[in-house]
Each structure stands twice: as structure tokens, then as C-alpha cells.
Amino acid sequence: MDLTAIGAAIAAFTGIGAGIGIGIATSKATDAVARQPEADGKIMKLLLLGCALAEATAIYGFVVAIMIILFS
Amino acid sequence: MKELLVELLMEDKTLIHVPFGNGFFDIAKSVVITWIVMAIVIIAVLLLTRDLKVHNISRRQAVLESCVLWLREAIGGMLGEEGAMYSDYMVTVLVFIGVSNMVGLFGVTPPTMDLNVTIALSVMSIILVEAAGIAKKGAKGWLKSFAEPMPVIAPMNVLELVIRPLSLCMRLFGNILGATVIMELIRSVVPIVLPAALSLYFDLFDGAIQAYVFCFLTSLYIKEAVE
Predict the structure, then answer these.
(1) Superfamily of domain A4-71
(2) What residue spans define the domains of chain A?
């Protein structure tokens, strides 16, 4: 039985973590901007950093999924 | 799906065969596209900076000056005062990665989709980070900085030398490859209208964000190294 596709699909589940993480980060950033609109630039910077780091897990999952498909 | 990935990743990427000794010296596609990107940027820069004046500046020069100042301030703010001298390199990398990512708009494969290009960029970044640390603290201080804040986590700090460039190059490569794969899949399902709208997001927005994130993280590492 060929389980390659299922393996790749499981690797793609890393997207859940990244989605939740970026969602939480964005909601907190919206809160922060609503409270202190003058700190806009700093919050934006931190938000982008957090999103980049949270997104990295999804990218790793994506790369692993591609490796599973290609090298199985 | 597998055919698409094989076509994108595994195909023979050489474009020009140069006879060299007994064999060939192959020039990959991404290198040629990089040359084209460099040519575009250099020509744009040469055209934009022609006959600049001190007084009675033209509208083009005013826009150019505000753009340059904005870029320098945005990057210089991330680098902090200590590392402000590295801002020119970071702006160069930002413009290069940005233009390379957006080249996908014209139907060319972005050079950043080649793992070799992103590895080269991230190795350059980590060398710059460590060189900045050595230039600031001296070789002894740089070695000591591995044992900060506690000697116990020194192995972690040494590991970061590898993890940082790995995550930088994988992030850029994975994002651009993911965007290209999704675009190809959509193009095979809906060939008109929808790909044009989505390529605005995937090529312009995502490309700009990834270029910004790459420079932002490198500047953050430099700031940490020179502190």
C-alpha cells in the first residue's frame, strides 16, 4: 500500500500551528494598536517578526512534505 | 502533483553550456535570471541618479531622495545606532530580493526559487553578522559572547550559527516555492482571470514581505551581535 500521500498530508498539518500562532499575534497587535495608536510602527515591526517566526514552522512542514513526495 | 514538483525542482536547470577544459562549465537558469535582475536594477539606478543637483531639484530627484531616506531610516532603525553603517548592504539585499521575487510577474521563474541562491544569500548574511560581531568586540570578545548570558547555553549559541542561516534560506525558498506551486495549480484549474488577481498577492505582496522579513531578521541579528 502506498502511504506517501498520507505522509505528506500529515506533514502539511504544521499549517494548523502556524495559522493559530499568526491569528493570535494579529489579534493582539490589533488590540495594541487600538489601545495605543501612536505605537503603530513598533507594533507593526514586532508583528512582522512574530509572523515570520510562526510561519517558519509551516514552511518547514511544506518542505518536509515536498521531500516526502519527491524522495519516497 | 508529483510531475509538477519534479518539473519545478528536479529538472536540469542549466541554461548555457560553456566548454571548459575537458567538460562543461554549466551556468544555471537562476544565475542568468539573476544577471537580468542585476541589469534591471543597475539600469534603473543609473537612469534615476542622472544629473542630480543641489539646488532646484527636479520632481524625480525629490521622489528618489525621499525613497532613499525612507529605506535607510527603515533599515537603520532596525539596525540600531551601533550597526547603522551596515544599512547600505541591507538596503541592497532588500532591493535585490524584492525585485527577484517580483520577477515572477513576468512569467519568469524567480531566482529565489533556487535553493542555491537563497543559501548564498543566507551564508552572506551570517558571515556579515559574525564579522560585525568580531569588528565590534574583537576576536576575544566575540568568542566570549558565546557564553552569554550563561556559560551553560554556549552549545545553543554555537548551534545558532547553523540554525540561523538554515532558517533564513529555508523561509525564503519555501515561501517562493509554495507561491509558485499554488499559482501553477490554480493556473491548471482556472486558466484565466483568477491567476492574474492572485499573482498580485503571491508575487507582489508575498515577495515584498519576504524580502522585508529576510532583511529584518538579518538586521536583528546584526543588532544583537554589535550590542
Answers:
(1) F1F0 ATP synthase subunit C (1.20.20.10)
(2) 4-71
Contacts of A55 in chain B (CB under 8 A): 171, 175
Q: Is B213 on the interface with A (CB under 8 A)?
A: yes
pLDDT tens-digit profile of B75-120? 888 888 887 888 889 999 999 999 998 888 887 888 888 888 899 9
How many structural domains compose chain B? Answer: 1
**Residues 6 or more apart whose Cβ sits within 8 Å of residue B211:** B94, B97, B98, B101
Q: Cβ of A48 and B174 within 8 Å? A: no
Higher pLDDT, B52 or A11: A11
Within chain B, residue ranges assigned H as helices are: 2-5, 29-48, 59-79, 87-102, 115-144, 154-189, 194-199, 206-226
* Nearest Cα to Cα of residue B176 among B129, B80, B109: B109
Does the beta carbon of B142 lie under 8 angstroms from any beta carbon of chain A? no
Q: Work out the minimum CA distance from A5 to partner chain B, whole angstroms.
A: 10
For the segment B210-220, the average pLDDT, to the nearest whole number, is 89
Q: Is the Cβ pair A66, B177 closer than 8 Å?
A: yes
The reported pTM is 0.84
Calculate what percentage of chain B has a pLDDT beyond 90.
Answer: 17
